[in-house]
Amino acid sequence: QFVESGGGSVQAGGSLRLSCAASGVIRSTWCMGWFRQVPGKEREGVARIADDGSTSYADSAKGRFTISKDSAKNTLNLQMNSLNPGDTAMYYCAAWPWAGNACLSVSAAAFDYWGQGTQVTVSS
Q1: What is the 3-state secondary structure (H, E, C) of 105-124?
Q2: 3-class SS letters over 4-45
Q3: How does pLDDT run across 45-74, given as a tens digit for each residue?
Q4: Facing residues of 2 across strands?
Q5: Is 56 helix (H, G, I), strand (E, B) or coil?
């Protein structure tokens, strides 16, 4: 349903762009988001984008990350700048078949469709 790409290793201060190509029943008009997880910790929300294009970000991502979607290509993107070692994690894209701004704050448990994850490693 999702094919993620763009992860990798980068030095602190660098940038990466994650992409997530959706297929099957998933529609870019749904609530979509990026989450990340470090072993031993809970999955945390990084950024979300609602059906109307409204966005929300975790405090740690504000000013550095930008979520966007390409409806024509049914693709979700995450541009990550000024990366630091604290951003090291497995990153997942996800979708929730819901319209409206509840998307911007709903918990990860609400999301029904998940990508396989792409690893981001930031070295100091």
Answers
A1: CCCHHHCCEECCCEEEEEEC
A2: EECCEEEECCCCEEEEEEECCCCCCCCEEEEEEECCCCCCEE
A3: 999 999 999 999 999 999 999 999 988 888
A4: 22
A5: strand
